[in-house]
């Protein structure tokens, strides 16, 4: 029964999409899958959890993705943009709290020019932190410029590697185009992050298996995986939300395919279950991203509804997240959290 899990650990290059789909479908493998994922995570990355402070600096977006609360067609949302000075000051606070990575995230907002983002990078780098950019698809020239200014990582979730599903969810875009951007980011030397949603309408086990094999093909340095949560002001408002256990299985399988990659326990998991992030840490995740978006903006960055931690003190997330990590027996890392590749052979003891 455990043969496929053993094959993934020791011969992952020969695993088929059908075998992966079978593991996702069969819940009798869950206990063993989660245990092996945690074993692999500890083998390659120890018991440390990296914190990455996120600033959601704009909820304007030119895109109209069907699942997203900040889609261009949503006229009910209150829009905001933070100034460069506001963003830099918030990054300084993150650095002062001892968090070694600042994540700059927004909708795809062309208001922020190449020069503006360049200025942010140069100013924030003075705080001796790593910088992750998550601002969507930009020109290859912009990617190159920001990398030369020492931006460290670029996060651009692919959401689904099922080409037909991607096309239905993303008007005027294609999975091939997203792939081209992700591979270009790798080529430029960024630690490159992809990631997907679990439970999208029309998604099945084969679709989820394609997501895992895609990030393996990309050799993604970061993989963000969270459940689909329907937003009331989108065309998918009445669809069923993603399942906690299925999301944890995709996280665990991703850990087996990418033993040394950074995989966050996402806020969306904490939104659908009060212990969702803790469970993810036990199933292969090794990163948490506390939210440092200042009020009143924090409550307006509504990719999905009922997001946790939006009404608390906007500087409280750091200590709260550290306590969450310790509560499940892991350690808060003081490291920058760059991907560490270790090539020693690993056997899961099956």
Number of helices: 13
Distance between the amino and carboxyl termini = 11 Å
What is the name of the CATH superfamily? Aldolase class I
Task: Supply the helix-strand structural class.
Answer: alpha/beta
Examine the coordinates and then state which fold CATH places here, giving the name of the CATH topology: TIM Barrel
| Portion in strands | 5-15%
Q: Find the count of extended strands (DSSP E, 2+ residues).
A: 9
Unreliable stretches (pLDDT < 50, length at least 5) are: 342-346
Query: Percent helix among the residues?
Result: 25-40%
Architecture in CATH?
A: Alpha-Beta Barrel
Q: Quick gist of this model?
A:
This protein has 350 residues and is α/β, with parallel strands linked by helices.
Labels describing this entry:
alpha/beta, 40% helix, 3-stranded parallel β-sheet, 13 helices, 6-stranded parallel β-sheet, 350 residues, 12% strand, TIM Barrel
Topology:
Elements: H1 3-11, H2 17-25, H3 30-45, E1 48-51, E2 53-58, H4 84-96, E3 101-106, H5 114-125, E4 130-134, H6 140-148, E5 153-155, H7 163-169, H8 175-187, E6 191-198, H9 205-218, E7 222-227, H10 244-257, H11 267-272, H12 276-281, E8 287-288, H13 317-327, E9 331-332
Parallel strand pairs: 1-8, 1-9, 2-3, 3-4, 4-5, 5-6, 6-7
Describe the model.
The protein has 350 residues and is α/β, with parallel strands linked by helices. It has a single domain (19-332), classed as Aldolase class I (TIM Barrel), CATH 3.20.20.70. Helices cover 40% and strands 12% of the residues. Strands 2-3-4-5-6-7 form a 6-stranded parallel β-sheet. Helix 2 (17-25) packs across helix 9 and helix 9 runs parallel beside helix 10. The relative contact order is 0.18. Residues 342-346 have low confidence and may be disordered.
